[in-house]
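R.M. (postdoc): so does anyone remember the format we settled on? I'll just put the structure tokens first.
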């Protein structure tokens, strides 16, 4: 196993995770999947993984928190955005990213999803992390659900210690 561990786990360098807006919304919102989102963030911090998000996700998260069934106050939504910025780093979006996102129209048909793909590529993210089954199947980079990404991060940390 030692000889194939780098192939399975990637290099032991810090991993870059492009965390989609749905994970952030779940993190700041009452949702049955919230423990999975919290575990992902905790494991990423413990392992030193770099948390990234498309810059446009800030608006998506803010809007989702304000417009949900159990909507947060505007101040609470701003606090969630501040926390998101403290935990992760925005990946900018420029015309080249929008061109790429538009070329991906056939993958999902959703511009926000396609911008996430473009952001993952721009940042050279190792993984895209989302709850969205369609994104998991169609991502242009390796994609995992939060609980699976937590397992990979634990495995990488364990392999690095040996």
């Amino acid at each position: 196993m030692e000889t194939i561990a780098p192939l399975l786990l990637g290099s032991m360098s810090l991993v870059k995770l492009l965390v989609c807006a749905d994970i952030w919304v779940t993190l700041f919102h009452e949702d049955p999947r919230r423990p999975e989102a919290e575990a992902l963030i905790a494991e990423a911090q413990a392992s030193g993984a770099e948390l990234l998000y498309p810059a446009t996700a800030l608006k998506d998260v803010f809007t989702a928190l304000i417009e949900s069934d159990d909507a947060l106050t505007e101040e609470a939504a701003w606090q969630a955005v501040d926390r998101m910025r403290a935990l992760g780093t925005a990946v900018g979006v420029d015309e080249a990213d929008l061109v790429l996102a538009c070329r991906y129209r056939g993958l999902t048909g959703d511009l926000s999803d396609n911008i996430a793909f473009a952001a993952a590529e721009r940042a050279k993210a190792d993984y895209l992390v989302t709850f969205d089954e369609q994104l998991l199947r169609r991502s242009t980079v390796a994609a995992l659900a939060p609980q699976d990404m937590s397992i990979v991060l634990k495995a990488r940390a364990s392999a690095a210690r040996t």
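R.M.: ...and that's the designed sequence above, right after the tokens. Also worth knowing: The mean pLDDT is 90. The domain at 13-157 is CATH 3.40.50.1010 (Rossmann fold).
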